[in-house]
């Protein structure tokens, strides 16, 4: 069983860039129209922003407010699909027999966003990139909990997915719209906890019944539960049953 505190959170999706908008979404969840809107990333200089992909900008937008300029935080980046837009562009170049850009290839790998976070924010601590299945969010939580147990007082977890190019429609059906969720997580026994911190336990069990998928990506469903005050929920995927319990 894993236990942790949610000290702070941030989230972004097209048209949803503040807590009030997400609270409204949590009480009436719906698919958000997803064009090519990008977050402002005002915390970064313009030259650095221009070099970031949309997925990277989404990650920086939600992560930056949760990490102080003088803080060094372990960082967990979790994404099932990663840089699909950049990868598709590279595959298109291969099809057209065009020369591949080493820079674009380097930025397409799954840990590139974690690396960019380290460089742009001067973070010198641990960083991990996770790619799971529909329960990638829980696997990211598992990694964050392990870092807390290992002694980190606080861990920053970001889950981000971008709507893939239409060519992937037959295979990717779990990204209803582009989104990024960042959680600043702390240990339950920390003396620095605030009265507003939400304390949760996460337990993994075996799932043997017919699979009924969650109607929303797990990270968004957790964010919804935070906003509406739910005290328990369950996410299942294949043989895995993730049980969430709020303890405070």
Could you explain how this protein is built, in words?
It is globular, with a radius of gyration of 18 Å. It is built from eight helices and eight strands. The protein has helices spanning 19-27, 46-50, 54-63, 84-95, 102-108, 112-121, 136-149, 218-228, and strands at residues 2-12, 75-78, 127-130, 154-161, 179-186, 198-206, 232-237, 240-246. The chain has a single domain (2-246), classed as Peroxisomal Thiolase, Chain A, domain 1 (3-Layer(aba) Sandwich), CATH 3.40.47.10. The protein has an eight-stranded mixed beta sheet with strand order 3-2-4-5-1-6-8-7, with helices on both faces. Helix 4 (84-95) runs antiparallel to helix 5. 31% of the residues lie in helices and 23% in strands. The protein is an alpha+beta fold.
Count of helix runs = 8
Order of helices and strands: EHHHEHHHEHEEEHEE
User: CA-to-CA gap between the ends?
Assistant: 16 Å
Structural Rg: 18 Å
* Sequence stretches where pLDDT stays below 50 over 5 or more residues: none
Number of strands: 8
- Overall helicity: 25-40%
CATH topology (fold) name = Peroxisomal Thiolase, Chain A, domain 1
Number of folding domains?
Answer: 1
Please state the second-level CATH architecture: 3-Layer(aba) Sandwich
Secondary-structure class: alpha+beta
Fraction of residues in β-strands: 15-25%
CATH homologous superfamily assignment: Thiolase/Chalcone synthase
For the biggest β-sheet, the strand order reads 3-2-4-5-1-6-8-7
Mean pLDDT: 93
Shape: globular
Q: What is the CATH domain class?
A: Alpha Beta
Describe the sheet with the most strands.
8 strands, mixed
């Amino acid at each position: 069983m894993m236990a942790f505190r949610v000290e702070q959170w941030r989230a972004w999706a097209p048209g949803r860039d503040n807590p009030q908008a997400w609270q409204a979404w949590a009480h009436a969840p719906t698919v958000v129209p997803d064009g090519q809107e990008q977050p402002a990333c005002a915390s970064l200089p313009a030259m650095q922003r221009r070099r970031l992909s949309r997925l990277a900008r989404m990650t920086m937008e939600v992560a930056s407010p949760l990490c102080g300029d003088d803080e060094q935080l372990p960082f967990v980046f979790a994404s099932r699909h990663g840089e699909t837009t950049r990868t598709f562009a590279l595959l298109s170049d291969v099809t057209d027999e065009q020369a591949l850009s080493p820079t674009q290839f380097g930025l397409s790998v799954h840990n590139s966003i974690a690396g960019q976070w380290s460089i742009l924010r001067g973070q010198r601590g641990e960083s991990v990139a996770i790619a799971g299945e529909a329960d990638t969010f829980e696997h990211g939580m598992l990694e964050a909990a392990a870092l807390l147990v290992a002694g980190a007082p606080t861990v920053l977890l970001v889950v981000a997915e971008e709507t893939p190019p239409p060519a992937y429609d037959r295979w990717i059906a779990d990204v209803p719209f582009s989104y990024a969720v960042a959680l600043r997580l702390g240990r339950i026994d920390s003396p620095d906890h605030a009265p507003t911190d939400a304390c949760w336990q996460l337990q993994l069990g075996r799932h043997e019944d017919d699979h009924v998928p969650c109607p929303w990506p797990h990270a968004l469903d957790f964010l919804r539960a935070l906003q509406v005050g739910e005290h328990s929920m369950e996410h299942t995927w294949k043989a895995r049953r993730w049980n969430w319990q709020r303890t405070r």
